[in-house]
Amino acid sequence: xxxxxxxxxxxxxxxxxxxxxxxxxxxxxxxxxxxxxxxxxxxxxxxxxxxxxxxxxxxxxxxxxxxxxxxxxxxxxxxxxxxxxxxxxxxxxxxxxxxxxxxxxxxxxxxxxxxxxxxxxxxxxxxx
Amino acid sequence: xxxxxxxxxxxxxxxxxxxxxxxxxxxxxxxxxxxxxxxxxxxxxxxxxxxxxxxxxxxxxxxxxxxxxxxxxxxxxxxxxxxxxxxxxxxxxxxxxxxxxxxxxxxxxxxxxxxxxxxxxxxxxxxxxxxxxxxxxxxxxxxxxxxxxxxxxxxxxxxxx
Lengths: 128, 161
Fold this sequence. Notes:
- Chain A is α/β, with parallel strands linked by helices.
- Helices cover about 50% and strands about 15% of the residues of chain A.
- In chain B, strands 1-5-6-4-3-2 form a six-stranded antiparallel β-sheet, covered by helices on one side.
- The interface of A and B includes residues 59 and 93 of A.
């Protein structure tokens, strides 16, 4: 199942709607990395509220998305990790080091607004 | 399956804080098998496992633990062996009920089981926490593997009384 990516002002929002296969996750990664350039987005929000399992592959792919988007000059924030999923990730020893997270979509947008306003000059200089 | 000297095997009970080992043999109440052929079968396996665990009345956070463990085991099959099976069982032993998950493949097998179980080791693309992580999530963990023979991982989790 493909994940819809919505453009909301300077941001891209990817809302995962159901359990995803490995290939769907990889496809999400690739389309976000591509679209962030095409849309000249400053930030990306990945909403994982609907994910009932974040195993090692999902965690790694989410981490890769964040790092790759950063290399493209934008910020990513992961929102909606559920309490049971968080518990399991800690038990498994999975870390999302260097990956910003926020409670929900609203907090995610607030995070990006802060982030983009403080690094505004830098962001504007991109690619010039 | 016959056991021979060459096959490496590790059986143990919880790494940390789990319950004491439960003595006796498993009585199988119900079982289901999921064939693993592609990454989409990983989702099927963990959804069936979650449903079985829900019927067993595990707590919501334990359901997530069980589903995640199944996901890791099924992914190991897809990544290393291409195909195999996940067997899910409702089991009872010594007054306890629980779930048994067995991942079975005829893939390349694991050369150094101890190293794999220490974590941080992976020849593929996950975080290398697959098997060592599964071991931490479940109450009992057994692995049987031999290069050229395949790998069988059996895990169990008991419903807390």
